[in-house]
Write a structure and sequence with these properties.
The protein is mainly alpha-helical. It has helices at about 5-15, 20-35, 50-60, 60-75, 95-105. The termini are far apart.
């Protein structure tokens, strides 16, 4: 089990709603395979904001924000969290980005 999976499982206890295992597994796998962990972690700011903070900020508008965040993941961009922009992640497809964005936003589903 990798570090992100362990953290995700630990957080499942505090975030009441976790997605069905399959969707969650593939999103968590993608975050690992696509190397998002270099800049993102569950609860700590590394270079980018923590997933829990992203969920808290955008989770209420999950329907719209899944697509907005997916495009930002692929194309890069800044201005929402600080001075450092996110680099483009061109090796991520829009579909993969949607899967990850939807999972990140689901962390806030109960609030
Ligand atoms: C080189 C560092 C870096 C990498 C790699 C990276 N990010 Fe980011 N990410 C950032 C930074 C910095 C921000 C804050 C951008 C801003 O201020 O709007 C960010 C913001 C985000 C946001 C929130 C955007 C918003 O507007 O609120 C999401 C979602 C996100 N990243 C997902 C991902 C995913 C998924 C991956 C892996 C494919 C990834 N990031 C890879 C640095 C990175």
């Amino acid at each position: 089990m990798n570090a992100i999976t362990r953290i995700a499982l630990a957080l499942c206890a505090s975030f009441a709603a976790c997605l069905p295992a399959t969707a969650q597994d593939s999103a968590v796998d993608l975050l690992e395979v696509k190397r998002c962990y270099i800049c993102h972690e569950m609860t700590q700011t590394i270079i980018g904001p923590p997933y829990a903070a992203i969920a808290a900020r955008h989770g209420q508008r999950r329907d719209v924000m899944t697509e907005v965040l997916a495009r930002k993941i692929v194309n890069g961009g800044g201005g929402n969290w600080g001075l450092v922009p996110m680099v483009p992640n061109q090796w991520v497809s829009l579909d993969e980005a949607r899967t990850m964005a939807d999972w990140i936003l689901s962390l806030n589903a109960e609030q």
